[in-house]
Every structure is written in C-alpha cells, then in structure tokens.
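Letters spell out the chain; backbone shape is given numerically. Both lines appear below:
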Amino acid sequence: MNEQQFDKFLHINTVGEQYGFPKLAHYHRYEPTPYTGLEQLFSQYDLPKNPVFIDMGCGKGRVPIYIHHKFHIPTIGVEMDAGFYKEAEHNKESYCRKKGSQANISFVHTIAENYKIQPRDNVFFFFNPFSINIFRTVIHNIWKSYEQNMREIHIILYYPPYDYLQFLHHGTPFELIHEVHLEHETNINERLCVFAIK
C-alpha cells in the first residue's frame, strides 16, 4: 500500500506537509513518518515486554495509531503544535469509529521537554523532531525515569541525525541493539536505529 492507501485503511488523514508552523530554531517541520519504513522496522525488530509506545513530536498521530493497529498496545503522541494536536485527536476518533471501539491511544499537547514520563513508558520514537539540545533534555528525563523505575527502555530513531547518535553513543548508557537500512535508499541516514538500556 502507498501512503494514501494506508491512511485510508486506518481511516485517518496524515499525508501532507506542515502548515502555519512557527519558525522556531529548535523545532523541525512536520513530515509524516513513511509507512514503508515502519513496516520494514517491525518485520525485523521486536518491542520489549509490556510496551508503552511514546512518539515524541507525533504530528497528526500517524505513528501512534499505526502502532496501536499493529500491536494493540498503549500508545501516546506528544505534540506541541495545537493544530496538529487537534488533527491527531480527530484521526484517533475516526480510527476508533472504524474499529467500532475505543483504543488505548492518547495525545498530549505539550513540548517534549515537559512531557511527564510515566513509570510504564518504555519505547520512545523520534523522527528528528527537534534540535540536539532538546533531545538531550528529553533523554535526560527518560534516564531519570529509569533511575526511579528500572525497566527495559528502547529509543527508536528514524533518519537519525549524527548529533543524536553521537550523544547516545558517548553521553548515555544506551547501546545500539538494532539497525535497519531502508530499502531503495542510498543515503546512510536513511535508516532506523534502536538503542536500549536493560
């Protein structure tokens, strides 16, 4: 299925570029995560036990809804832009109508640094949503949560920026456990990297 067909299958509308987004130095423009990359990742990689999936910078909610559809697990999308947050909520409602039931999907309207990490949150997804400065703060928050409630935690990076990788490799206890080079891509950044602390 292509992007539009996948959206139609899930009864959501997430295709398209950003609009009306504030020009902020530390936050990057909205771009939906390609379904093909997600399909490739989850054909090769297994989530940890009892996963609760957090998408940092979820845009219109594509990834949390896709993950819920595929694995039937709790998912949370964190989004700072009010317009995208409303669209994500609308997409959730449409998806639930299609299923004929409620889904354990929630969206939080806040900046990623202010998201209060819950003791069960253990999979964090990033599609290059913001600068390395904010990424460091979010990872620090995840680490503090780990110290308070030790559990297996995974960090998934889609199209990982070099500075994200350098920070995780050299500035944190997280270790690279899985790497997926996307099909039909030649750029070394066209990949997914999974880091974990166990």
